[in-house]
Amino acid sequence: MVNNAGVARSRLLFNMTPEEWDIVVKTHLCGAFSCTKPASALMWQQKSGRIVDVSSIGGLGIWNAAIDVNYASAKEGLIGFTRAVAIALGRGGITCNAIRPSGATRIVRSPEGERALRQEMLSVGMETLERASMALADPEDVAPFVVWLCTDAAAGINGYDFRVTGGHIGLYSQPTEIKCIDKEGRWTLDEMDRLAPVSLAAGLKNRALP
């Protein structure tokens, strides 16, 4: 089961309509649920199955996230979906993994998509090299790795997400807690003001700024 349905409605957040939010979230996230649910029932009966969810680097808050809040939210939601499905169905011989592909797909290269995307990106000064390099990637380069994830050779790979573009295939790390602060009871705001900047938040920068 490869959940590959996609649609985009690129718009700055304060210009985005509820309809533009809904169609993107429903296509990517709800679509994956609607297809995986019946497929997983059959896979569970046969004690074997492969599920691949097509996410995006857009969910990482890079590339054109400023104009694709709906797309980023749906695609990163797919990562949580992937991990949960992997745990829920793994003992039944079923694997579920995600890929974050890049390529000059119909969404990216259609006249309407190109025009809307470029107009919105230019409005916030976001015509980037990442955008240019993505346009050069062939979507067919992604297919071999997707097929491989569906073979017996990948039976032990479950709950992971991968970057796939051109000849590059990468494995993303799983989220881990990297720092913490602890105390008995509830923190106060004064304690946060005093301790967080030199401990938990030390070195953190505003990701929206250069």
Could you describe the 3D structure shown?
There is one protein chain. The chain has 210 residues and is of the alpha/beta class. It contains seven helices and five strands, in the order βαβαβααααββα. Strands 1-2-3-4-5 form a five-stranded mixed beta sheet, sandwiched between helices. Helix 1 packs parallel to helix 2. The termini are far apart. The mean pLDDT is 87.
What is this entry, summarized?
Helix content is 42%, strand content 12%. By secondary structure, the chain is α/β, with parallel strands linked by helices. The protein has a single domain, classed as NAD(P)-binding Rossmann-like Domain (Rossmann fold), CATH 3.40.50.
What labels would you give this structure?
210 residues; Rossmann fold; 5-stranded mixed sheet; 7 helices
**Briefly, what CATH class?**
Alpha Beta
- The chain-level structural class is alpha/beta
Architecture, CATH level 2? 3-Layer(aba) Sandwich
Helix content: 40-55%
Unreliable residue runs: none
Distance between the termini: 40 Å
Could you say how many structural domains there are in total?
1
Q: Round the mean pLDDT to the nearest integer and report it.
A: 87
